[in-house]
């Protein structure tokens, strides 16, 4: 069994990357969020899969990623975990960087929509990373921004938290 686990690999050519879907009439001043939640979620999923595909089954043996002595044996798992932590920090920072309540509420709505799309794509790692950002203390204290969210978005937010 150990030999089967050690010999399992995913070749780069086995992973086809679909092209980027750009929205029509994209302005030169466009931001990432102008691409829409489905495309952002799709791109995050492709990035996550590239990292996930590098994880070798042997890295899962004996939870090497939690033991400092053996962490070198699980470098791909640790890299994947760091990617999720970075995604959580990026989402929280993007929201907190907004200068006014309306902008913060829009950014929160964007991340709720991205999380919803990630869930539909079965990308649970990025989904949880964004939910962690939205549930983090810095964001949850923004009650004034949260009250500006529309009812449908608030309901979607509550549904995602329950998952």
Q: What would your notes on this structure say?
A:
- With 163 residues, this protein is mainly α.
- Helix content is 60%, strand content 0%.
- It is built from 8 helices and no strands.
- It has helices at 2-7, 37-54, 75-96, 101-120, 124-135, 137-140, 143-146, 151-162.
- Helix 2 runs antiparallel to helix 3 and helix 3 runs antiparallel to helix 4.
- The longest helix has 22 residues, at 75-96.
- The chain is globular, with a radius of gyration of 18 Å.
Write the layout of secondary structure elements.
Layout: H1 2-7, H2 37-54, H3 75-96, H4 101-120, H5 124-135, H6 137-140, H7 143-146, H8 151-162
Helix pairs in contact: 2-3, 2-4, 3-4, 3-5, 4-5, 4-8
Ranges with pLDDT <50 over ≥5 residues? 1-13
Strand share of the residues? under 5%
Number of strands: 0
Compute the separation of the termini in Å.
35 Å
Residues in helix, %: 55-70%
Whole-number radius of gyration? Answer: 18 Å
The helix/strand order is HHHHHHHH
Short overview:
The protein has about 160 residues and is mainly α.
Descriptive terms for the model:
163 residues, 8 helices
């Amino acid at each position: 069994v150990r030999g089967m686990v050690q010999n399992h690999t995913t070749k780069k050519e086995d992973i086809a990357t679909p092209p980027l879907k750009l929205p029509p009439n994209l302005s030169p001043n466009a931001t990432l969020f102008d691409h829409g939640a489905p495309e952002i979620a799709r791109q995050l999923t492709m990035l996550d899969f590239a990292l996930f595909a590098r994880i070798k089954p042997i890295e899962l043996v004996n939870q090497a990623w939690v033991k400092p002595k053996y962490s070198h044996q699980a470098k791909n798992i640790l890299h994947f975990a760091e990617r999720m932590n970075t995604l959580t920090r990026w989402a929280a920072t993007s929201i907190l960087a907004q200068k006014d309540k309306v902008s913060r509420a829009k950014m929160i709505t964007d991340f709720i929509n991205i999380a919803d799309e990630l869930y539909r794509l079965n990308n649970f790692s990025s989904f949880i990373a964004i939910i962690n950002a939205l549930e983090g203390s810095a964001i949850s204290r923004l009650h004034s921004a949260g009250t500006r969210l529309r009812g449908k978005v608030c309901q979607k937010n509550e549904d995602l938290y329950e998952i």
